[in-house]
Amino acid sequence: MIGAIDNAKRALRADLRERRQQRSQPALEEAEAGVKAQLDALVAATGARSVSCFLSTPTEPGTHAFVADAVARGIRVLLPITRADGLLDWAVATSDADIAEGLFGLPEPVAEVLSPLALNDVDLLLIPAAAVDRSGMRLGWGRGFFDKTLGSMEKCPPVYAVIFDSELLDEVPRDLHDQAVTGVVTPTQTLRLA
């Protein structure tokens, strides 16, 4: 049965990855503007003063404009730094931080590294996903970084996955270790799911 779940995840991820690669640059820029507006509204609605976010890759819903603006407004933003052991370290985003290619080719900040425990002080988590279903189950990209992170937190604040509108699905394949999210942020809407 586990093999069937893994195969279903792999096939869905491949389909989603291909769809993302087909988006035009103007569509990606429009999506980033929409995501920024939705994230700004979510931060305001929750009163969050400290958030975690990720630096989007070129095919993901863009988060760079949100991060830069949040930092400029005095919001503390923690950015993930991947580790070989499958955990995430964190760095505080700054307006002048360099960005480099991290483990697995993901954009990561070049800054002072904070331990995984730094995440315990945030009010809101904004995480990447390949897709999310209507029950809040998140399908990641297969390395388990965020599932491990969420599963290890004693007191987890609200968690929102940032996806494109078409990536909110009726159902995604799930394993025992998979972690659900509170809601999703897309370029056009913010939905609380759990």
TrEMBL record:
InterPro entries documented for this protein: FTHF_cligase, FTHF_cligase-like_sf, NagB/RpiA_transferase-like
Record: residues binding substrate: 55, 60
Residues bound to ATP: 9-13
Biological-process GO terms, alphabetical: folic acid-containing compound biosynthetic process; tetrahydrofolate interconversion
UniProt catalytic activity: (6S)-5-formyl-5,6,7,8-tetrahydrofolate + ATP = (6R)-5,10-methenyltetrahydrofolate + ADP + phosphate
EC number: 6.3.3.2
Class of enzymatic activity (EC top level): ligase
Pfam families xref list: 5-FTHF_cyc-lig
NCBIfam families per record: MTHFS_bact (TIGR02727)
Family stated for the protein in its record: Belongs to the 5-formyltetrahydrofolate cyclo-ligase family.
Name used for this protein in its record: 5-formyltetrahydrofolate cyclo-ligase
Organism encoding this protein: Microbacterium telephonicum
Taxonomic classification: Bacteria, Bacillati, Actinomycetota, Actinomycetes, Micrococcales
